[in-house]
């Protein structure tokens, strides 16, 4: 991904937090000679070798998994809040633009099987059920229900490179920067307000 230096995020703690909070990503690879993409949760983890990985699964009916053996190189794309930035918010003439946060993760993918599949599902369910009034646990599901796990292909991605972009008007002076935040908050749009909140935290 093209990232101007001013928008490059190299803070590993910040990137890790972003990936944990925005784990619904796009898994991209090449399958049958063409690019293929699937929208799925991809969770950060550590494998038995102590390497940072992404864990996930897709349906066996999705032909994308057949491309994993042909070419193990993948790209996972994660997006955060984004919003249109109007040039009318500046104290000088300028052009429209867009503020956003995005992370691209490159790595090698491999299919996992056996107990590792159930463990991966358990971690996924535990994460998203923790705030439920009546949390569901993999351990409590019936054998009949768990038979559905035979219909998925689970995998882990060993991370080789992370590219992170945080385009939050860092190229603006303090006066215009604060005005953009103020105008974003006036929109009453969730995405725009989220961008304003990120701008308040963004190092400049």
Automatic annotation (TrEMBL):
Quote the Pfam families the UniProt record gives.
FMN_bind_2
InterPro entries per the UniProt record, alphabetical: Split_barrel_FMN-bd (IPR012349), TR_PAI2-type (IPR007396)
What top-level branch of life does the organism fall under? Answer: Bacteria
**Name the record gives this protein:** Negative transcriptional regulator, PaiB family
Name the source organism. Flavobacterium urumqiense
């Amino acid at each position: 991904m093209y990232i101007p230096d001013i928008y490059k995020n190299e803070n590993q703690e910040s990137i890790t937090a972003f990936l944990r909070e925005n784990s619904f990503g796009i898994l991209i690879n090449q399958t049958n000679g063409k690019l293929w993409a699937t929208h799925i949760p991809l969770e950060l983890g550590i494998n038995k070798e102590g390497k940072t990985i992404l864990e996930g699964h897709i349906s066996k009916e999705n032909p994308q998994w057949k491309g994993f053996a042909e070419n193990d190189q993948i790209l996972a794309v994660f997006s955060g809040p984004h919003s249109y930035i109007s040039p009318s918010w500046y104290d000088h003439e300028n052009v429209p633009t867009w503020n956003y946060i995005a992370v691209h993760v490159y790595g090698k993918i491999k299919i996992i099987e056996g107990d590792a599949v159930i463990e991966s599902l358990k971690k996924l369910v535990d994460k998203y059920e923790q705030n439920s009034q009546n949390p569901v646990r993999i351990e409590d599901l019936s054998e009949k229900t768990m038979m559905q796990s035979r219909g998925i292909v689970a995998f882990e991605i060993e991370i080789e490179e992370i590219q992170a972009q945080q385009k939050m008007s860092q190229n603006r002076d303090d006066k215009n920067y604060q005005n953009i935040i103020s105008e974003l908050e006036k929109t009453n749009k969730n995405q725009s307000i989220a961008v304003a909140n990120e701008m308040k935290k963004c190092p400049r």
